[in-house]
Design a protein that fits this description.
single chain, alpha/beta, Nucleotidyltransferase, domain 5, 2 domains, 4-stranded mixed beta sheet, 9 strands, disordered C terminus
Length: 269
Amino acid sequence: MSAVAGIGIDAGSTTTKLVAVDGGGAIVAHAIEAAHPRVEDQVARLLDELRARAGAGVGVPSVATGYGRKLVKEVTRQVTEITCHARGVFAALGTPGTLVDIGGQDSKVIRVGADGRAVDFLMNDKCAAGTGRFLENTASRLGVPLDELGPRAIGARGEEAISSTCTVFAESEIISLIAHGAELGSILKGLHRSLIGRIGAMVRGVGLERPLMLSGGVARNVAVRELLGELAGEPVVVPEDPQLMGAYGAAILALESSEGRFQAPTRRE
């Protein structure tokens, strides 16, 4: 196993991710768990386990990002999710473009420049609509496993319009549709279309620079990928480990820190 040269920690709202990279920026080890209320304790445990598994010493530079980054102690730096997601996807795919990151509690659209930095961005963290939580709540309400939402939506023969942009009102619409005998798959497709509509407005706000890239846990949802591709007019590009991109970008910044190449963002995020 290659020597670990940088560690990234993404203390997200729903999951905690850690990534260790070697001197060339390749991922050599990672960890992911559902977020714990005591973030600092969870990260300390996962960090010890990751170091042991990867053979990394305590002196390896580390960068924390995500909602809970300020609770993570003994790291080299704490950096915003915008910067880390942009750097992670750029390192994974090797191209500038527009990145959509749909997380559990927020969604981000980031225009990534030729050097891997965030040129512009929009972030929705005030409303559950347009986030993974929107899909999770619906899956729970309808009794559909989360990993079946996408396939059932794509396989639907029709599509029911979900006009509400608020999660609470959208749920009321869904209940009404069920009461009127609407087919479940058609409801799910309409739900996904509603989510992509919110994302599409953010993409237009930032500006679509191809390719359109997708990261975050929701990137595993086939309906999200397909409908977002329709929006772009071409298939979206998804990195191999979309859920790890924030932690991966943080690890890349930690690596650069060890080499004296780290530069802080030039704009306020």
